[in-house]
Amino acid sequence: MRGLNIEKSVSRLDGFLSGIASYSGNIRDYSAYAFIAPLKNERSCESAIKDHFSWLPDLDFSDIQVLQHGLRDLEVEIRPFLVRDFRYGNAEEANKLQNYFSFRIMDDIYAAINGYKLNQVIKLVATPTPQSSDSVFFCICLETDVIAIQFNNDINFIKALRIGTLILQA
């Protein structure tokens, strides 16, 4: 059974990521989430993510990368996803925000995993379709759970909704 601390920390992180994403591009161009997916029967984090998105049976990953230095690499890898198409300043200011936000996110992650054994950190790039969001998942693999951070570029998905070409799966 997972502890309340991990639930609270990941919930706080989810809200923080959502707020950051709303400052990138137009209000619905990008989205970001954090959630916990259980590792069932010692399966892979890819399986845990696919189970979490069971309504997307075609979800597949085109790139799977183990971050060799774990959380240290994660802090750097998430930066480009934090401030995209920034409209409120120059590149230097955007870079400073990316550094600050990644530091804050890592604080929440460390609070969430306190007392848990970290196995590995994995980056998963979902195989996009022309009508779907481009999604990247960073998976913090613990013994029984995966803390997933999901970054989406929703521009193609929103465009498909607007022109009515989105095909919904039954």
TrEMBL record:
Name listed for the protein in its UniProt record = Uncharacterized protein
Q: From what organism does this protein derive?
A: Xanthomonas campestris pv. phaseoli
